[in-house]
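User: Design a sequence. Structure:
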């Protein structure tokens, strides 16, 4: 195992710790492969009853993939990133179908790839410190790691709102939107994790879980559902501006900062995901879209502006929603030249 992933056995518990705290445990390709290796080994090990995923440090489980590496690789063809995505999405699918309880502790920041290794688990725990998001449109990308599957199944149009604006979820929001199952105060996590060693998962979680905190998004459904039900990004923006709701106006301003191309592709991906019959179908679609995004100007430019130069001034191409036609959007959903993602 690489130093950035620590695994251990504690009674009947297989423990996986993402250990890259200085980078908020952002996933590298090697980390993805190491987590997969541990899960494969424990799947057939009768001595392992449950798997627990946590993140090292005090700030979060995982802030996502190593997007600076994506930036550098995309500039030279993106082959390394495509390989990373193939293995990452296969890991996401494995977690969703894992034959044993998979407990993900989403304490602190859990974004992007961090959602992929947690929100598909069978037991998903948030704390008062949890901040959950799929922020890909901020960097000229689209929600992935099964994010379109999850977002498309959130109540009403909450998932459309979250996917397009890249807004963060509070612990209560994550529970409301189907990204988490239980709320446990962070102070109780050590006892909960210790208790899993010799007691059934459901019993231990029930012992420490508390009532779900308030979900701010629940009180905003009236304007979110009305505005984000539109069939085009242009109409969504028009409804937000016309609503007269300050929060809606702010959402419109946030959309104006995102890549016009990726907003339109994200909306199309979310609408298509509603008709999907499985997570694997959404992951396959996300692989197509992500491979196309790697060859698009806006991904490199978005990461440059947010992470590399940090000037927060991306120059999108095209620069307006009107400049993105239906043919451009449709091309993102075509099978990549190297072939589709294959999930067993």
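Assistant: Done.
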């Amino acid at each position: 195992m690489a130093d950035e992933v620590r695994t251990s056995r504690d009674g009947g518990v297989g423990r996986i710790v993402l250990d890259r705290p200085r980078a908020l445990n952002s996933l590298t390709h090697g980390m993805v492969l190491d987590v997969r290796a541990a899960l494969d080994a424990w799947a057939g090990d009768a001595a392992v009853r449950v798997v627990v995923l946590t993140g090292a440090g005090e700030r979060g489980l995982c802030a996502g993939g190593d997007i600076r590496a994506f930036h550098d690789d995309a500039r030279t063809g993106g082959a390394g990133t495509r390989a990373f995505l193939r293995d990452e999405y296969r890991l996401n699918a494995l977690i969703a179908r894992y034959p044993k309880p998979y407990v993900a502790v989403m304490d602190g920041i859990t974004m992007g790839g961090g959602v992929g290794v947690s929100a598909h688990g069978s037991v998903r725990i948030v704390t008062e410190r949890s901040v959950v998001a799929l922020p890909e449109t901020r960097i000229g990308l689209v929600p992935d790691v099964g994010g379109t599957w999850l977002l498309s199944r959130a109540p009403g149009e909450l998932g459309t709102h979250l996917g397009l604006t890249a807004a963060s979820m509070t612990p209560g929001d994550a529970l409301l939107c189907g990204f988490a199952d239980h709320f446990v105060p962070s102070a109780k996590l050590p006892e909960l994790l210790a208790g899993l060693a010799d007691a059934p998962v459901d019993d231990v979680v029930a012992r420490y879980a508390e009532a779900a905190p308030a979900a701010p998004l629940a009180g905003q459904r009236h304007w979110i559902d009305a505005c984000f039900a539109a069939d085009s990004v242009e109409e969504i923006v028009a409804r937000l501006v016309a609503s007269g709701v300050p929060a809606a106006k702010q959402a419109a301003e946030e959309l104006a900062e995102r890549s016009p191309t990726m907003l339109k592709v994200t909306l199309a991906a979310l609408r298509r995901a509603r008709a999907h019959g499985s997570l694997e179908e959404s992951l396959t679609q996300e692989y197509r879209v992500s491979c196309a995004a790697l060859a698009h100007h806006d991904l490199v430019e978005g990461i440059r502006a947010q992470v590399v130069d940090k000037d927060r001034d991306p120059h999108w191409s095209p620069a307006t929603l009107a400049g993105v036609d239906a043919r451009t959007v449709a091309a993102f959903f075509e099978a990549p030249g190297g072939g589709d993602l294959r999930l067993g």
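The longest strand covers residues 5-10. DSSP finds 16 helices and nine strands in the chain.
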